[in-house]
Design goal:
The complex is a heterodimer of chains A (about 290) and B (about 525). Chain A is of the alpha+beta class and about 290 residues long. In chain A, about 70% of the residues lie in helices and about 10% in strands. A four-stranded antiparallel β-sheet of chain A has the order 2-3-1-4. Chain A starts with 15 loop residues before the first helix and ends with a helix. Helix content of chain B is about 50%, strand content about 20%. In chain B, the strands form five sheets. Chain B has a four-stranded antiparallel β-sheet with strand order 8-9-3-17. The chains are: A alpha+beta (about 290), B alpha+beta (about 525).
Chain lengths: ~290, ~525
């Protein structure tokens, strides 16, 4: 059996500043994107159907691709805001950002045109905006709760804030990526953002624990923490990549959305834990404590 | 003896697994709940599947209405208050105003018509001369409970098996009514739920000066029993046979004679064609709309004339088509909704419909997705450790967490949805993460030859696992509590998985590893 080993990185070659610069720069860019998005659109990330209100229809159309889209365009009034095909099947997912026509009317239009309605979903705008408030509050609460817990566990400022900053960056960077890739904020992606808080803190806590609470050389502790932590993150990452790909092929949007955002978050976490968090810890261990 | 004490964690895990498997497969568990509300159970397991995985319609919406609290009526009787308030409001009828007494002289006034604002209700109360404390959006608890009851009745009467109606209150204090009906298209459910279902019979007749008047002669409470809808025979319309209550029958009989509906030789209604020159008619009115009009047969008319009818007060309500007859029967039996659900284009609700075939498809697809994700995890773990002794128990342990959770879901009848499946995948993810921490810690630096070394290393590993578990629980708790629809299941099962993992499976994995390494 081929066992892979987590490679040992020679951290002595890089200064703390060099190590922290990369994740901080990425975080800054991400914050710029999210901030810019907020200024331009009034929301840090485009809210999806769950939050804006609207309707979604999943239909099967018995026609070759080019014609199917044309048929769909002609059938519906109002025309759908988006039309997405589920991985080369006859199934299309349509969204409507309108409230003028009820979902039942849209279903009827679809049936009248000979399409088969597989599922439909509608959210009123009022309900959606309230849901958005609750969801954002939930993410904020989760983040605050996590921060308090981390401070209680380590009881020292620098290591705790290192974890909190990493976790913050682990959320902001995926959000910026969502903006760039046009992924909307849905209930699924909110769940994924909360999951990131849970997952990403694991490897940070592991690293802090190894360096602060164990005897032994800093680099040795780091390497041991990395062996475990990187394995952990890679396992989760592979599970999520597979889940995203498979769920996308099957057209299961909820699972695909959770998977995509978690892949972003876990990848970001690798960078943040072993560059940002590590540099703060090394500074704390060699300079912070001495003073 | 020593063996048992040393391995009690493994034994406990095996026991819990056995219970879970029992809950999953035993026909004695959850058998009675096979028709549990809003879910469908299938095949060999006792698992219940939610809407997304079995198909059906779900509607979640608040009730339409505004309420004034602490209204002082003085000596006025509630029905009079209802009339007074209704007359001050342009788009509400008496049927839309509900007065509930809290004491002899005060209580709440609700208006359940669409488009009435709290401010308008306030003005109407002022104009009608009643003082009140506050007005607000929403209806009272009593109205909500009553609505839920009536809706449940309606769904049962309509024969939509397995449908449920529930009232949910969010932690932020908002109230919603949740209707779930498996295997049914949205339109049928919406139609059923949307009708207030207020059925009455009016008499339509010419007064002395020749103009026509319409007055209510029968309401829902006036019926003693309501038959099932019948197809009309030759030349006859579909009908619902009813029996009028004995104490009401004489009055009704008298009204029929007075208005001329039961005139000599019966009446031939031409309400549709010539409303200004027709014989007296009976009008069947549903939610304020005349759905049918009919006259009276000579036989029945003479029965009324002679007074015999009131001895055996049977009557038929005629409708234009059979569906209409069914609707009337359902509405009469289930009662009228005190308030409607706020669905529709500018409503406040959500609705979803999933075709049963789609639900089936999602069920297999999501199961496949989960299995493939497990294979991915297993692949990475095998690649990393290269030792079957370490990796295999890891996968088995992580899967046992899922089995325990599935057993739990089957035991309490929690319906599985896509979000719960996502939760299972997340549980495998965090589970394996923690097992990796244990394995790495225990096997660090040289062989584990003594039990003491093992124990101390295991304890160190457990600190990190506990801390990680605590953060996951904190992060997921908002979703578990907040009513964010689909995601509650995801959060609940992720949290449960973490708890089961920390208390049960991960310690057991430690024991398994020790048994394998300290041999």
């Amino acid at each position: 059996m081929v066992a892979f080993e987590v490679p040992e990185i020679d951290y002595t070659r890089y200064t703390n500043r060099q190590l922290a610069a990369v994740p901080l720069a990425v975080l800054a860019v991400a914050l710029l994107i999210v901030g810019g998005w907020y200024v331009a659109t009034g929301a840090p990330v485009d809210p999806g159907l769950d939050f804006t209100g609207g309707a979604e229809l999943r239909i099967t159309v018995d026609a070759p691709d080019g014609q199917a889209r044309e048929q769909i365009q002609q059938t519906f009034d109002p025309t759908p805001a988006t039309i997405r095909q589920v991985s080369n099947s006859d199934t299309y997912i349509l969204t409507f950002q309108t409230e003028e026509v009820g979902i039942s009317a849209l279903e009827e239009q679809a049936r009248a045109a000979g399409f088969e309605v597989e599922s439909s979903y509608s959210v009123s705008a009022n309900f959606g905006s309230r849901t958005q408030g609750i969801a954002l509050g939930g993410v904020a609460f989760a983040f605050l709760g996590m921060s308090v817990l981390v401070f209680l566990m380590f009881r020292t400022f620098v290591p705790s804030i290192a974890v909190v900053v990493s976790a913050f960056s682990d959320i902001v960077i995926p959000v910026a990526l969502m903006n760039l890739l046009g992924i909307e904020l849905t209930l699924g992606t909110v769940a994924a953002l909360l999951m990131i808080i849970g997952y990403s803190v694991d490897s940070d806590i592991l690293l802090n624990n190894h360096i602060l609470r164990r005897s032994g050389d800093f680099y040795e502790s780091t390497h041991r923490a990395m062996r475990t932590g990187v394995t952990m993150t890679l396992t989760s990452l592979s599970a999520m990549i597979v889940m995203t790909v498979v769920a996308t092929l099957f057209g299961i949007q909820l699972l695909a959305a959770i998977g995509t955002v978690l892949v972003f978050g876990l990848a970001t976490d690798l960078m943040n834990t072993y560059m940002l968090n590590l540099s703060l810890l090394r500074w704390y261990k060699y300079e912070g404590v001495a003073n | 003896m020593g063996k048992i004490r040393d391995n009690w964690r493994i034994i406990l895990l095996v026991l819990v697994l056995a219970v879970s498997v029992f809950a999953l497969f035993s026909p004695t568990v959850g058998g009675d709940d096979a028709d549990a509300p809003g879910t469908a159970s299938t095949g060999v397991t006792n698992l219940q599947y939610g809407l997304q995985l079995s198909g059906g319609t779900r509607i979640r919406a608040p009730l339409v209405g505004v309420t004034a609290e602490d209204v002082e009526f003085g000596d006025t009787e509630p029905p009079q208050v209802e009339r007074d308030v209704a007359s001050e409001l342009a788009n509400a009828t008496v049927a839309d105003v509900i007065v509930r007494e809290e004491s002899r002289t005060s209580g709440t006034v609700e208006v359940t018509a669409d488009g009435v604002t709290p401010a308008q209700l306030g003005t109407a109360l002022d104009d009608a001369g009643y003082s009140y404390e506050t007005t607000r959006d929403g209806v009272t608890e009593d109205t909500r409970t009553q609505t839920v009851e009536v809706l449940s009745n309606k769904i049962n009467e309509a024969g939509l098996s397995g449908g449920t109606v529930q009232q949910i209150t969010t932690p932020t204090g908002e109230n919603f009514v949740l209707v779930e009906v498996p295997d049914e298209s949205r339109q049928e459910v919406v139609d059923l739920v949307n009708d207030r279902g207020n059925v009455r019979v009016d008499a339509y007749y010419a007064t002395d000066d020749g103009s026509y008047e319409q007055t209510t002669v029968l309401e829902r409470d006036d019926f003693q029993s309501i038959g099932t809808a019948e197809q009309g025979g030759e030349g006859q319309q579909p009908r619902v046979p009813v029996v009028v209550r004995e104490d009401v029958a004489p009055t009704f009989q008298e009204r029929m004679i007075e208005t001329g509906v039961a005139q000599q030789g019966g009446s031939r209604c031409r309400y549709g064609a010539a409303p200004n020159s027709t014989d007296p008619c009976l009008l069947l009115v549903v939610d304020g709309e005349v759905v049918n009009s009919f006259g009276m047969s000579p036989g029945l008319a003479s029965g009324m004339q002679s007074g015999d009818w009131a001895q055996d007060p049977r009557f038929v309500l005629q409708t234009r088509n059979f569906t209409g007859a069914q609707d009337v029967a359902i509405n009469l039996r289930a009662g009228a909704l005190p308030a409607a659900l706020d669905i529709g284009p500018d409503g406040e609700g959500t609705s979803s419909f999933i075709a049963p075939s789609q639900g089936q498809q999602f069920r297999t697809d999501s199961l496949l997705t989960g299995i493939i994700a497990v294979f991915a995890v297993a692949g990475v773990v095998f690649l990393r450790y290269g030792e079957v002794e370490v990796a295999l128990p890891m996968i088995v342990t992580a899967l046992s967490e899922v089995v325990v959770l599935l057993g739990f879901a089957a035991g309490i009848g929690y319906p599985l949805d896509l979000s719960v499946i996502a939760g299972f995948i997340a549980v495998i993810g965090t589970g394996v993460d923690d097992l990796i921490i244990i394995a790495d810690e225990v096997m660090a630096e040289g062989d584990v030859n003594s039990r003491r070394v093992f124990q101390s290393r295991f304890r160190k590993a457990f600190w990190v696992i506990g801390a990680a578990a605590a953060t996951t629980i904190i992060a997921m708790s908002p979703l578990a509590v907040l009513s964010l629809g689909d995601l509650q299941g995801f959060a609940i099962f992720t949290i449960l998985g973490v708890i089961v993992g920390v208390l049960l499976t991960r310690p057991a994995y430690g024991d398994i590893l020790r048994a394998l390494l300290t041999r």
